[in-house]
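Hi support team,

I'm filing this because I wasn't sure whether my run with pyridoxal-5'-phosphate finished correctly. The job status page said complete, but I'd like someone to confirm that the output block is well-formed before I use it downstream. Pasting the exact inputs I used:
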Amino acid sequence: MNIGYGKQTIGKDDLNEVERVLGSGFLTCGPEVKNFEDKFSKEVGSKYAVAVSSGTAALHLACIALGLREGDELITSPMTFAASANCALYCGAKPVFIDVDEKTGLIDENKIEEKISEKTKIIIPVHYGGMPCNLEKIKSLADKYNLRIVEDACHALGAEYKKSKIGDCFYSDMAVFSFHPVKHITTGEGGMITTNSKELYEKLLRLRSHGIEKKEDWKQEMVELGYNYRITDFQCALGSNQLNNLKNFISKRREIAKKYDEELGIESKLELIKEKENLFNPYHLYVIKLQNSELRKRLYDFLKEKGIFCQVHYIPVYLHPYYQSLGYKKGLCSSAENFYEKILSIPVYPLLKEEEQTFVIEKIKEFLKNN
Ligand SMILES: *Cc1c(COP(=O)(O)O)cnc(C)c1O
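And here is everything the job wrote out:
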């Protein structure tokens, strides 16, 4: 057995599309980019979408587009991949971490207000594992203090919050997605920003390509400092075709999650993260909680020995050595630290076979019985 916690699904149809575009004459800056963007914005219900080279590039551009700069503060969750906070550092701004709800790992919306200062510009809520944050509450705070919201939706393609699809930006200025192979759809590396603002859309397009605007004939003027965060046409062809399969991918993930809920929900030594009412979780991750870090480590080792490779999502961002060197201290977000001690992400991806999942469940039960 060799089972990871997550993995891409690449079909013959994906290969055909990539091959077609590789032979088409446009490797980059061609029609497939706009095709993918249009298809994506239609899927999530936003007016505009801008495809870029990674989720990290998407976060960076979103922050620049909102004018984040030195001296500003950006509020986010520590229970995330470092990129959600690094985008503040790229702009010379300071990430301010809000503690999480220890049950769900989501940013605790009731602890945000006390950390808002004169310097706060942006809130980046992270839909951890695929479960949407309390966007209504976060939007009401943003309105009250005139802050912008960029959703880190890298786990949440296909998620729904009440009547809203994540990515439709009903509660936010922009939403950011990643197409890294472990995410819901992949382009190898890649990302997307969605928005309903024409102004932000045009700015993002410019920033993606050096800050250069096309005028007439040979005239291309660089009007601001941008980057090369472009994505290729063959990646976008892959992304478009992957989107065709999104519904299947998500229903497979939810099927797997449902079986875990049923089989592992009866284990008294485990705590699961329940899907909340009015939310739709596409399960980027399936996270179980052990009673303590020692038990978690032993289960991790036990499963690894059986060929089941789990992961821990995440070490609270500010505990990374680099953030420690910036002066962030252990104890800053105690619930996030407690949550981190107990969690383990077990396999969930569309190609996980039924007998493989049964094996995973059996091994977890076997461990719990003897520990
Ligand atoms: C994957 C991920 C990112 C970064 O995306 P890349 O495409 O790998 O740059 C950012 N935030 C979260 C929460 C992620 O899971």
